[in-house]
Design brief:
Number of domains: 1
Largest sheet: none
Number of helices: 10
Number of strands: 0
Distance between the termini: 29 Å
Helix content: over 70%
Structural class: mainly alpha
Shape: globular
Radius of gyration: 19 Å
């Protein structure tokens, strides 16, 4: 059978990506504005309640220190939520069949969900900056580092969201994943403090939290200071992304909880 002249090899990927984009963009008050407002509330509460009580980088105001952490936290949580909730809801409603029936390759399936998750995460992060720039004096020492960690971190969490969405068959399972894994790791990643303010045991334990490296590397892009080398953080984040991507593609090829 001949292929129509209008066929494009990336048409399936583009269609699925557009569907995922419209899914969160059409309810932007919930998916974009609400997380930005949450970050603003965190900034107001913690900036005034913890200022002068938490050890941070020399010469950096605590409110300014908070902004990159809150922005990165918003990026990571929303990237995860986008891909995870989309896949889980599609499975619950049964319309996942309309995604599985077309001749989409596994890399196309993975890339469409991943890029939509990254897009939502980055847009929310940008919204946090636009909303907070009026309240703090924020400098950007190394913008390229901030951009790299912003996209790399959202990529890791978007991929993890795909895994969680594939595994979860109902809301309770996904909520457990978010409440007992994602939320604790995010809040204990140095968003609100430098790990140097922690006792030695908790400092050492923080180094086993992969989200710590995303937040710390992203913050380095603003202040040129970090708790660990940004190159080490980048190596750990990149390794996490490729390992999770490989595992996700393996799940898709196996049809785990999708085709079986």
């Amino acid at each position: 059978m001949s292929i129509p002249s209008t066929y494009h090899p990336l048409q399936g990927f583009y269609t699925l990506f557009r569907k995922e984009w419209l899914r969160f963009w059409k309810v932007n008050v919930q998916t974009i504005l609400a997380p930005v407002l949450t970050a603003l509330l965190f900034l107001v509460v913690f900036a005034y309640s913890l200022r002068g009580r938490v050890e941070i980088f020399p010469g950096v105001d605590y409110a300014a220190f908070l902004v990159p952490g809150l922005a990165m936290m918003s990026v990571l949580q929303n990237a995860f939520a986008n891909s995870a909730s989309s896949l889980m809801q599609s499975k619950m409603t049964g319309n996942i069949i309309f995604v599985l029936l077309p001749p989409l390759s596994h890399p196309e399936f993975f890339s469409a969900y991943l890029l939509a998750a990254v897009a939502r995460g980055v847009i929310v992060g940008a919204g946090v900056f636009l909303a907070t720039v009026w309240f703090v004096d924020l400098r950007v020492e190394h913008p390229l580092w901030a951009v790299v960690f912003g996209f790399a971190g959202s990529g890791v969490m978007g991929t993890l969201g795909i895994i969680a969405g594939i595994h979860s068959d109902k809301v309770d399972e996904l909520a457990a994943f978010q409440n007992f894994i994602i939320l604790p790791l995010t809040f204990l990643s140095g968003v609100f403090y430098s790990i140097h303010s922690l006792p030695p045991f908790w400092q050492a334990l923080s180094h086993f939290n992969p989200i710590f490296y995303m937040v710390d590397g992203f913050r380095y892009g603003f202040f040129g200071q970090s708790d660990v080398s940004p190159w080490l953080s980048l190596a750990i984040v990149a390794t996490s992304f490729f390992a999770l991507s490989f595992f996700t593609l393996w799940l898709l090829r196996a049809g785990y909880k999708l085709r079986h």
